[in-house]
Amino acid sequence: MEAGEILPIDCWQSIFNHLDHDGLEAVSLACKDFLTIPNIYKHSLQVIHPGVDMLSKQLNRFKQLKSIDLKPFTGDLDEVILEIARSDISLQVLDICHRYGLKAESLKELGSNSKMKNLKVFNCLMRDSNLQDNDLVVIANSFPNLVELDLKIFNFLPNKCLANDSCSTWFPTDAGVEILASKLKLLKKICIYGEHYISDRSVVALASNCVFLQDFTLWCYRNNGVTEKGIGFLLRNRPNLEALSIGNIKMDSPLSTITIEHSISHAKALTSLEFSRMDVSDMLLIAVAKAELRLTKFVLHFCKKFTVTGLLMVLSNCQLTKLGIVESDIADVDMELVLSRDVSKLTHIEIKRCQVTSSTLFLLSTRCPSLLEIRMKQIALDGQINDGGNNFPLLKNHSVQNLCLKHCRISDKLVKQLGLIFPNLKVLDLSYCCRFTSTGIEAILKSCKLIRKLILREYLNKKIIEEDNSELPEVNLEDLSLSWTGIDDKGLAAIAKRCPRLVSLEVSHCDYVTTEGIKQIVNNITTLKYLYMRGCDGVNSGDLLEWMLSTGNLASLKKIYLGQNTFTEEQMDQFSHRGCLLR
């Protein structure tokens, strides 16, 4: 009896709607009916295989796709866009990444498919390629019902080119943005980030034409003509604006009437506010505080001229859940004042390149009972503890689940203390930190039994767990990132023994990892799905792949990330037929 005869189709729909991609893939192998039913309920697809033929088969199989992600795709982007354009699917979300250019004709053909008129979200990331006004016109004409548009350009021109006005034709200008604004009447969210040659004209056009605009991001790196007069116009004319993130905005004279300071009170719906790389005075922060906004997120990113006085005003008048302070003169004594306010609702905090120490970290653990995530980067955390300046009571904070301490000086003593203070950690990132060893790592893994993800990029030692003398029991670690570390085969053997439930392992650019070390991992960890080992000179990819095929040691593996030109198309097909992708 087939599965479909036991329960009606709507019952299977209710069941399969609760499954993720891997779950749907697994049940599709159970029987013929289960192969057919998930096809109907798969709504998103990430395209990885560079062959357009593979995508063609997927488009024919999954007729109900609503979202396609092409960011990891490494093949011919124009070909794949045309393949989607000629399919029968009705997309709502499309993510693409320009690496070597995209022809406007491809987007035109995509837009000529009547079913693509339903596209609501278009995210376009440009690397080493350009986006011009003509491309914006094509986007506007092809997808008139867009609700979200993300335009990021990371193709930076040399400084000498900036003196040449003709360079502006390589990137979007006011003319292109004005056409976008006039066509996309339903737009709620727009992000313009990177290299753009625009001015207040663009901001005024978007504020005037896009009456539903709720989320506005504008970070232009160079030759930016946007001033706070344009942002002031936006704040005054879009009262339904909920999120504003702006960077490199030219500040006007204090005597000007249309400034951010004089306009912020109009944005009564604002819940998220981010300033980046611009002058933010205490007067502006006081205006934000007095506006009685419903702010829950506030970020100051590489901003100057503000002091803790202005910051305190914002904290005193807003019930923030997310706070970010990146590169400022804020010190421990300032953070003590900040945390003396009502921060009971604070769930996420980021402090980077500030003059704080471990004192602030321990204050966060005691004064912020709702904190879920702490991110501190480029901070000298070790100083006062090792100097004996303070004796902190090790009170437990059971709420923090994600702790990121990148580019910090951390000793084994501090790592042990972190494990005692934050026993419910699930994600720990100690990348680019120095001085701690396997002693600290074992201690925190022993204290924090819920840790599922550990990131240790550029860890200096060969082991994170001692092979023979370790008292660490088996841990439930699922995701381990060790790229650019000193880990060796013996270190991998200890990981395989103590972390038998790993799902993802990254050892990219690890000079002491060899083919035998990877074989040990694959042999002993039966749950492993994702293996990253790009740039490992000691790994012979050809021998490793042949060993996997001949021994069948890839039953759980879904994706293997190798260096360029380390596998053949035949090997890629062989692994693909076994349900595993080579990248």
UniProtKB/TrEMBL annotation:
<dbReference type="GO" id="GO:0031146">
    <property type="term" value="P:SCF-dependent proteasomal ubiquitin-dependent protein catabolic process"/>
</dbReference>
<dbReference type="GO" id="GO:0019005">
    <property type="term" value="C:SCF ubiquitin ligase complex"/>
</dbReference>
<dbReference type="Pfam" id="PF13516">
    <property type="entry name" value="LRR_6"/>
</dbReference>
<dbReference type="InterPro" id="IPR006553">
    <property type="entry name" value="Leu-rich_rpt_Cys-con_subtyp"/>
</dbReference>
<protein>
    <submittedName>
        <fullName>F-box/LRR-repeat protein 20-like</fullName>
    </submittedName>
</protein>
<dbReference type="InterPro" id="IPR032675">
    <property type="entry name" value="LRR_dom_sf"/>
</dbReference>
<dbReference type="InterPro" id="IPR001611">
    <property type="entry name" value="Leu-rich_rpt"/>
</dbReference>
